[in-house]
């Protein structure tokens, strides 16, 4: 499978009127407008001021991306710690997905010592060189936490029928409001009659 999905296709859309604002550290956010009740609630929702921030490691650690379905006993899991050595295998050995099945995608990650704003998951799917689907899912904004976060995306249904039963090329990316790319990998899946 030699289909190439270029960076241009993975560009995220902008929300009209939304301005991410100036980047601030966790300490700057904690001190910002300390008497503003609404702002304090927002800061608390991000874990700012809770003392859970770790000064070690990367800003964000992404653990896994999983595909879960009630019709399958175990999820299909992309473990990001193992991703580097398996990138070529992910493209050559497609993941099998049962046709007409409902599934959810789940992202597991941890924010260590900074506020991450506007995380997005973007995925482009190609079949026979043509883009057949683009998914752009807002993951959200998160503050540092000792406990990992889990984000589940809305339920989707895999295509079905004889024409759908083929192999698809996929490129997935996780990016934030500042344009930082955290995860970027190519993989493939095949729609089949059974898992």
From TrEMBL:
MF GO annotations: Rho GDP-dissociation inhibitor activity
Subcellular location: Cytoplasm
BP-aspect Gene Ontology terms: Rho protein signal transduction
Keyword Cytoplasm among UniProt keywords: yes
One Pfam family cited in the UniProt record for this chain: Rho_GDI
Keywords attached to this entry: Cytoplasm
InterPro entries the record matches: Ig_E-set, Rho_GDI, RhoGDI_dom_sf
Chief localisation class: cytoplasm
Region (Disordered): 1-25
Record's GO cellular component terms: cytosol; membrane
Function, in words: Regulates the GDP/GTP exchange reaction of the Rho proteins by inhibiting the dissociation of GDP from them, and the subsequent binding of GTP to them.
Family according to the record: Belongs to the Rho GDI family.
PANTHER family tied to this protein: LD16419P, RHO GDP-DISSOCIATION INHIBITOR
Name of the protein in question: Rho GDP-dissociation inhibitor
Organism: Wallemia hederae
């Amino acid at each position: 499978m030699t289909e190439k999905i270029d960076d241009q296709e993975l560009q995220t859309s902008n929300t009209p009127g939304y301005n991410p604002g100036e980047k601030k550290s966790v300490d700057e956010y904690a001190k910002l407008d300390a008497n503003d009740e609404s702002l304090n609630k927002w800061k608390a929702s991000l874990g700012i001021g809770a003392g859970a921030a770790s000064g070690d490691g990367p800003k964000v650690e992404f653990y896994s991306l999983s595909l879960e379905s009630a019709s399958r006993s175990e999820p299909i899991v992309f473990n990001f710690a193992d991703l580097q050595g398996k990138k070529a295998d992910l493209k050559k050995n497609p993941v099998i997905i049962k046709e007409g099945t409902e599934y959810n995608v789940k992202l597991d990650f941890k924010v260590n010592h900074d506020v991450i704003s506007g995380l997005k998951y973007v995925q482009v799917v190609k079949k026979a060189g043509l883009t057949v689907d683009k998914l752009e899912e807002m993951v959200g904004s998160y503050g540092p936490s000792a406990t990992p976060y889990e984000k589940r995306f809305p339920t989707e249904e895999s295509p079905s029928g004889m024409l759908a039963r083929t192999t698809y090329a996929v490129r997935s990316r996780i990016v934030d409001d500042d344009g930082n790319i955290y995860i970027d990998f190519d993989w493939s899946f095949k729609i089949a009659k059974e898992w």
